[in-house]
Amino acid sequence: MKKIINIIGALVLAFIMPLSALAENTPPAIPAMFYGGVMIDGNAAPIGTDVVAQYGSNKTASFKLTEIGKYFMNIPVNAGTVKFTVNDKDAGQIVVTNVPSLKYDLVITTSNSASGGSASSSGGGGIYKPVIDAENVDEGDTDDFVETDGDENGQVLGATSVNVADGDIIQCANSADPFAVYIVKIVDGKKYIRHIVSLQIFNFYTHLKWENLVQVDSLDDFSLSGWVRVNTGANGNPGPNDKVYEINGDQTRHWIDMTAEEFLAHGGSEEAIFNINAGELSLYAEGPAVVLR
User: Where are the domains of the chain?
Assistant: First the structure.
């Protein structure tokens, strides 16, 4: 009888141990970049103000303001609730769902009045115009950049450099969305970028690492593209039935229902199409087909 129990126990352990090993080898969450204003009693918070974010199982990240009324911090959370305090006073909470960066303004009062925050996700880009249906597609729907006053404190990782290579990930503090991150494609001297709209992208490409993020001074030399394709032909070339999709900031994909000739005639560009893998494509919900007008 003892032998049977021992065998059963060994079998149970055999099943438990691999699961434990898997849990230990689970990759850490990719940091989400939070930023925004900090107000205390209606005034911009002073330098030295403490911002603390609580997430997961009582984990915390902290930031001490280095500029009046502004904070930015990396929080390793892909999904879940993040609670903020400013100088140990509740400043609100927000539910995060796989966004690369998120603007969340923190507001507190030192009286008994309610405090809290307001959010806007930059996972949608703020630069690239979403395409919903064929009637709303604009020809040449790229290069929608607006110059704003830059803030060097908004630079998160990497070193400032304009020596960008094909396959790099970049960020520009002087752009309309200083926390947006882009992937670079360079073809015959032409530079294209596409917005990373989901943190999960980093799980599908080993060369994409936050520590390799490059800061650039301007996006003027780049053309913004939302076009992608999974190439199934030989040597990474497109196959005869491979579809081109437009990826929107709401993490949806839309098949561009046009022949290659029609696509090119209406402002499309083969060079502007990013080759992605099937894993990344599966991240995006299927939306209605679109055409270029």
Answer: 32-121, 134-286
pLDDT digits (tens, 9 = 90+) for 7-32: 444 444 444 444 444 444 545 556 67
* Alpha carbon distance 265, 20 (integer Å): 55
- Rounded to a whole number of angstroms, the CA Rg of the chain reads 23
- DSSP, residue by residue, 139-189: TT-----------GGG--SS-B-S---TT-EEEETTSSSTT--EEEEEETT
| Burial of 87 per CB tally in 10 Å (0-12, 13-18, 19+) | middle
Q: Render pLDDT for 249-262 as a digit per residue (tens, 0 to 9).
A: 888 999 999 999 99
Range with the lowest mean pLDDT among 106-110, 223-227, 261-265? Answer: 106-110
Hey, is 12 helix, strand or coil?
Answer: helix
Find out whether 224 and 255 touch, Cβ atoms under 8 Å: no
The set of residues, in sequence order, having a beta carbon less than 8 Å from that of 260 and lying 6+ positions away, is none
Is domain 32-121 in CATH 2.60.40.10, yes or no? yes
Count of C-beta atoms within a 10 Å radius of residue 101: 24
Q: Which residues make Cβ contacts (< 8 Å) with residue 267, sequence separation at least 6?
A: 139, 140, 292
